[in-house]
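task queued by scheduler; priority normal; single chain, no ligands, no partner chains; default sampling; output format set to structure tokens
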Amino acid sequence: MKDEDKQVQHETPKGGQNKAEAPRPWRTEGLPADPGGQPRRRWSGLITWLLLGAMLFLGLTIQDRLSGPVVISYTEFKAQVAEKNVQQVFARGNTVQGELKQPKAIPGQTQATYKQFSTERPTFAVDDLLKELEADGATVQARPLTEERGMLTNLLISMAPLLLLFGLYAWWFRRQQRAMGGIGGLMGRRPSKRVDPDKVRATFADVAGIDEVKAEISEVVDFLKDPDKYRRVGARPPKGVLLAGSPGTGKTLLARATAGEANVPFFSASASEFIEMIVGVGASRVRELFEEASKVAPSIIFIDEIDTIGRSRGGGHAMGGHDEREQTLNQILTEMDGFSGREGVVVLAATNRPDVLDPALLRPGRFDRTIMVHSPDQKGRAEILGVHTRKVPLADDVKLESVAASTPGMTGAELANLVNEAALLAAKRGKEKVSQRELTDALEKVQLGTARNIVMPECERKRTAYHEAGHALLGMLQPGADPVRKVSIIPRGRALGVTLSTPEQDRYGYDMKYLKGRIIGALGGTAAEQEVFGVITTGAESDLETVTRIARAMVGRWGMSEKIGAVSVLPSDGPPTMAGTSNAMLDLVDQEVRRISQECLAEARRLLRENRDKLDGIVTELLARETLDEQEVYAAAGIERPARPRRPDGSEDEAAPARC
């Protein structure tokens, strides 16, 4: 049995992502397309430069080899001098370069010839080379035939590989810094991808079940569409709207739908993405985010889970991450309503814990409004199911109102998962459309868990049947209790058996009589085992947890104990002693919880003793069929099922108001 109803909403598919966008710690949508067109091809540019460098280096080397002088022996050089075939020479030390009058074959190579040459004069040579050359009419000069490259050219060529290596490393390091957030992710930006503006964006048509919230936030949409209308009458639009609610209630979807409805750019980021180990990084990211939003104003900034950085600032000197968190929060406060307040930028934020936020965030001029996003009622759940089944082919027997009536407390995310599970079942069974059976089976899987194929001993199977029958019978006997929808002894999840009870209509308040009935019903399994077998098993673990939770809330939070009185001694968060509760008061709370539990257990055993025949009837049917639905379990117990009001056509009105 559930302690209280749950919540609302859903997610819509995200848009595409533009890989060419510069990395930033937020996502955007609705911005104009980049006029640059195609993304920069970094790898192709790098490869092109590498090829050009390699070709230049090889060209210079080949040119030097082809145009340079041929190295010959000194003996070959003397032979050419004797033949008077030397036209001119250049000497530097013992190195002699020159040019022949007529080309000669290279020694050892009959096909190749040479005209320019280079040789080394041995140090032990005693010939008068200058006299011989002058006698042959050769020109002796100081300028070399092949000009040497200058010092700067030689330096550049020698440093080219090193410069190329450093350039490649710098390019790689810069790319990694952008992609991974700097050195180890401690500095710089984090990777983010912009939502493709060509994709379909969310609008209020994608939001269902929270009409009152849409009506309240419509003023923001109206301002973004026509801000001059408000300025003419001197009205100041809200600078910030805080969306508070439980997880899955559609806060993020509502923010995206607001931007889509107003047709303005939308920047979204998680508050945790601003926090880094290095102090000041978060504040710089906040400044950059607001600057980008201001360039395309009017625009919307959405910060999810703002309680990560927006918690109340404590006293003392904060160090490390706390100091960084406070600097980031201070920057957000300044950007929203400070000397550098941004005009035309509306900030939407979402949180599950509005009670822990800093008061400076919630004051007028920053987050002017706090909108609570509650769980949907039955009508809202039917609308949400309608949104999620738009692209799901449904059979003619599908009744979304019936499914909505069987899912009290479910959020929009849970309803979306329910529809998806039903579609998966239909595809698995080879069907082209989703029928009511798939929705019912998916709901059973979601609420009760996946069935396990285990074989229980007959004695344990019988004890499990009595345990679940005890829950079901007490749920049917208690006045005003939630009707029993299904009883099963098929092991599911961690449980060996399951009893499902849901209210006829959503409940928003609980009195003491109803809560005690919940406790009695939860103790029905333990009471049945004690009455029939005289034992207590571990199967009552989750039941006892439910009983203890309800009883402690009755005594310590809701003032339903005469000894404690109309005071709240158990805070919803944190230890009671920090809230000023004494140890003596806590002992008294424990005594009252134990008293309520014992009284309810005694009442449960009394009811089962007086209705033993009904209990045995349910057990007999359970052992034979393993699973009983609502009509079958009431018939097995011989109890008339409470009738719902009927419509004019004779069908039951599942949306009828609950009886008080």
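post-processing summary
- The first strand starts at residue 17 and ends at 18.
- The mean pLDDT is 76.
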